[in-house]
Amino acid sequence: MSVLDDVAHMRAALALARRGNGLTWPNPSVGCVIVRDGRVVGRATTAPGGRPHAEPQALAMAGIAARGATAYVTLEPCCFHGRTPPCTDALIAAGVARVVIGVRDPDTRVNGAGLARLRAAGIAVTEGVLADEAEEVVAGFFTRVRHGRPLVTLKLASTLDGRIATHGGESQWITGAPARRMAHALRGRHDAVMVGVGTALADDPDLTCRLPGFKPVPTVRVVADSHLRLRLTARLVATAASAPTWVVARQSADSLRAAALESAGVAVLRVGDSPAGIDLADALRTLAERGITRLLVEGGAQLSAALLRADLVDRLVWFHAPAVMGGDGWPAAQGFGVEKLAGMAHFEPRGAREVGADLMSEYGRARRVVGGAKGATG
User: Fold this and answer.
1) Active site residues
2) Which of 63, 127, 189, 351 has the fewest CB atoms within 10 Å, counting from its CB?
3) Distance between alpha carbon 93 and the CA centroid of its chain, in Å?
4) pLDDT tens digit string along 288-330?
5) What does the DSSP 8-state code read for residue 197?
6) Can you tell me the distance from the alpha carbon of 317 to that of 328, in angstroms, rounded to the nearest whole number?
7) pLDDT tens-digit series, residues 121-141
8) Closest alpha carbon to 2 in 50, 27, 35
9) 330-352 pLDDT, tens digit each
10) What end-to-end distance do the CA atoms of the chain give, in Å?
11) Which residues contact 80 (CB under 8 A, 6 or more apart)?
12) Which secondary-structure segment (H or E) carries 328?
C-alpha cells in the first residue's frame, strides 16, 4: 500500500469512528477498515454501548478475506481481557498481514503494548497515520483517561451582544429553527448534556436529541442542583425512565428530597461542597467515573461562568442571532471575577458557519493545558 492509500483508508475509518460519538461510552468510538488487494472487505464501528469493538466486527465481515489483508484502525487495538477478548488476539487469529493505526491508546493497559503484541506475532505495524484527526475523534476518551473528567463543550446561544434572555427572563427563541436543530445534533454527539438548576426550573427542558433516527442511545441529562430544587413534576424527572436523568448535589443536600427524586428514577450524585454550591471539578470526576467522556453544557449563565472560572471548558460552540438586546438583558455568562485581561478565558477559533440566519462559531482551548481549579455552582 502507498502512503496515499494509507491516508485514504484511514480517512474512511475515521469517518466510521465519528458516527459513534455519543453512542459508545464509556468506550471510545473506533473505526476499522480491512483492505485486501486494494478492495475493502470489512468495515465497522464500535457498537452502541461500547461492545463489540470495531475490529472483531470488521473481521467477521471480512471472513477468510482478512488473511493477508491490512487493517486500518483509528485507535490502537486493545490487548487485555476486559468485557471482551483482546482485539489484538482477534487480528492475529484472523491472519492479517499489516495493521495501520491512527493514534496510540493512552490507557495504561494498552499504550503501545497492543502494537508490541502485533509485532511479536509477525504483523507489520504502521502508526501515526492522520494522528491529529484520530485523536480529535476520541478526544473525550483521552480527556477521561488522562485527566479523570469528560471533555467539556459549552454551548451558548445569544444575541450579537451576548444576551441569552430579556431582563424579564424571556429566552425562547433567540436563535432560529436551523440553529436549534444543530443544537440537537450536538446533543446526539455527546454522552451527556448538563444544565444548571436555574435553567431546569425556568425552561422545564427535555434535553433530548429529537432528530428522528439520529441517536439510538439516549443522552444522559445532568442537572447541577446543589440543594435539590428540581421539581418532581419536571419533564426531566417525568421522563427519567426513558432517558437517564442524573442530579449532581452537594453532600449536605436534603436526604428526603434525594429519596423522592430517586423514587422517580433519578440518580442523585453527591459531590463535594463549596461555599457557593457544588465542587464542579469533583462533579466532573464523578461523571467520568460513571463512564461519561463527552459532556455538553447548555447553561445557564451561572453554570457557564463557574466552569469558565474553574478552567474546565475545553470547547466552545456559540450560536449568535443577528440581533442586539442591550445591557439590561441576561448575559451568556455571569461575572466570574475577571479583573485583568490576563484573567479572561481564552479560546482559539476552530471554524464558523451560517446556520439559517444565525452564525455558529466553534472554539478550542488556546493552550495545551487541560484541567483546572475547583469551581462551584448552584
Assistant:
1) 55
2) 351
3) 33
4) 999 999 999 997 788 988 898 888 999 999 998 888 887 777 7
5) H
6) 24
7) 999 999 999 999 999 999 999
8) 35
9) 777 777 777 677 777 888 999 99
10) 56
11) 86, 109, 110
12) none
